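Our working data are protein records whose layout never changes between entries. Instead of coordinates, the fold is spelled out as a row of discrete tokens. Here is such a record, shown just as it appears in the course material:
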Amino acid sequence: MAEGLDEARRKLDDEYGQVRRRLDKIHTALDRVDAAGPEDDLYALLKDLEDVVKEVRTGGIVGSGARGHRKALEQYRERKDN
């Protein structure tokens, strides 16, 4: 049982790390919104921020994003509770 828990923890840590590494994209997009002035297209900047957040949350085309972390967390909690 400990072996299954260890594997679940490794998967959880991996998924967490993947999401954390992508947070820089969100920070960059947010910084662009924050630095915008009255003559900048706030709508477009906010749309870009929204798209980046969605990509980090869902994983985009290739990855699983925070959704993968959620699944790994559920599996870890199940194994930890048993």
Summary: The chain has a mean pLDDT of 92.
